[in-house]
Description:
Structural class: mainly alpha
Oligomer: single chain
Helix content: 55-70%
Shape: elongated
Order of helices and strands: HHHHHH
Amino acid sequence: MYQLVEYADASPEVRVVYDDIMATRKTDWINNFWKALANDPATLKRTWESIKQIMAPGAIDPLTKEMIYMAVSVTNQCSYCIASHTASARNIGMTDAMFHELMAVVGMANETNRLAAGYQIEIDDQFKTV
Length: 130
């Protein structure tokens, strides 16, 4: 496990990213994910720039993006990402009912994905795209 780089101990280039994270998220703290990545400032910066762009409002609303992130995190069994994106989703409006329904969809998708893969089911022509 890597040391977490606290703001007070961060290099100037890491502090620039930390400041942007706090300004963008309207918060006064940096979570452990970013503190761990700060051990490699280039990875920290690249990852922050990507996530800031991808998770910004667009054709898909922010709550839906957070719930997609949760679904992938559950499937990949990333406890940290599940916790952080569940908190984010709840902060922007995800209800308990939405959470339960999302988990049901995730469970069903994983089950049917494995069945389709195991049976090596050929894709229907109607489902193929050009």
